[in-house]
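Q: How would the structure tokens look for this protein?
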Amino acid sequence: MKLLSDAQIQRFLRDGYLTLQANLSADFHAQVRTQIDDLFRNEGNPGNEILPKVPDLYRVLRDEHISGALASLLGPDYIVHPHRHCHQNLAGSSGQGMHQDSYESDQNVRHHRCRWAMAFYYPQDVALENGPSSAIPATQHYNDTEQANERAELPLIGPAGTVTIVHYDLWHRAMPNLSTHDRYMVKFLFTRMSEPDGPAWSSADGAWTGTDDGPPDALCQSQWAWMGGQTDGRAAVDDPQLLYDHLQSPSEYQRLEAAYALASQGADAVPYLVKALRAEAAHKQERNLERAHTNPSQLDALFALSAAGAPALAPLENLLVDTDWPLRAAAADALGDMGRVAVGAVPLLQRALSDSAVWVRRNATEALGHMGPDGSEAVPALSERLTDPDITVRHNAALALAKIGPSAESAAGALQVAQEDEDFYVRENARIALSRIEA
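A: Here is the predicted structure in token form.
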């Protein structure tokens, strides 16, 4: 595999995308385009069945440049998620509105740490008049449309075989197709299956190169440290009370900048962050519940508590047993986003699997998956969640067991039953879990 360089990883962390070229012939891509044309003409859009219907696409996913980039970003044991889709941009179409993709059968918090990615593959040449996909660079950390649209849209054009890998939360759309030919783009989704313990790319010196162009530099530097298996060693220089005040700013950029500046101050800032989380959870609860595909734990202070790491563990464990369910849900999510740093919270997260609030159960199941084999004591409780009445809980329970891997062997029977679930993604996650248990 052709692994990414330090510079490419840092560019991805800032811009939210990388464009690569699959090392396959023009004739190969023309053949794929013909197969897709025939498939749409004879059967319609196959949805998630595009891979078995056009198996040559596996060669794109196995290409040394594409697989190497994905391994660099998501770790060598990443998986191709069961969701994939061939987008047909019809000749003469007016295109789409700018958007972030929703999570299939789930309502995930849009985390900054790169555990999910997408790839857009063109089986034909795409110029501006063909209605390419486009993205707004450096917007993967913004949830507010106004902040995202302050930057210029970038058409993702290129010859057949162009593959653009994007952070899952990057704002993007299909542009108007002004040509007389339909344009195809095959979208794949990928998931990290284990937490980073060092650079998965071809790293040289590990030094972060700062920039003022893009998201807050402290945010990107924090992600760089996490992907490299390091703690963020930035010096704390700001007044925590002033930063706390900035967490109330109408500017999402300023809120995120303040959140990561507070995170860098460690234990001194944690009381401010807990206070901010309590206020934000109450203030945004109704809005987040009303918004489609939004987890109520979509909170700026949560990112800071996660980035703060070990100093925030005890306060988050206290919040995990709070009487207010939005705080319990937020604590579960933050502990999960910390990953193995929060392994000591596994017993409390296991108890949270039986919480009366569905959002607490949903966030706790995902959190335990991030612990990997270190979360194995929760396997029996996760197995029980495979029959939870809520799809998102079942979905995450199966994926968590997949991430725990062979240590989840005792869940094999429950996973066999889950392969008959009414939801496609629960069934597929259960299949993936069984394959990793048996590996």
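The chain has 19 helices and eight strands.

The first helix runs from residue 6 to 15.

Upvote if useful.
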